[in-house]
Amino acid sequence: MNLYGHKVNQLARNFTKKLNERISPLGLYSSQWAITLYLYEKKQCTQIELCKYLDVEAPTITRTLTRMEEMGLVIRNDGKDKRERVIKLTEKAYEMFPKWREAAQDLEIEAINNIDKDELEIFNSILEKMMKNLEQ
Hints:
Helices cover 69% and strands 10% of the residues. It is mainly alpha-helical. Strands 1-3-2 form a three-stranded antiparallel sheet. Strand 2 and strand 3 (85-89) form a beta hairpin.
């Protein structure tokens, strides 16, 4: 029995641990990096959108965003109604982003060392299919 899910989970745990080792000295943790990366690409989003993207409960996102707001990394504004909150990165976050991205990219380069492009394309395709299967 191959237990693919277990192996994927162990890889994710190891990757998260190593990422935290690299970006925490730069003032960020992996859960905050995921939010930062999403906001960097989207420019802004709602808390609900973040919950769906990260597949976590609202209280978890709220706690992380509160910490990030206290750190001066995000701004939360009222949305269309009082229940909706729109989140954006601050200038401080945009200034730090290249350092965080470099640390994350360095780790990815290390992780894919000795794996050729064709293997990575297959791996990516398989991961996408597995995620799609679990979304159904």
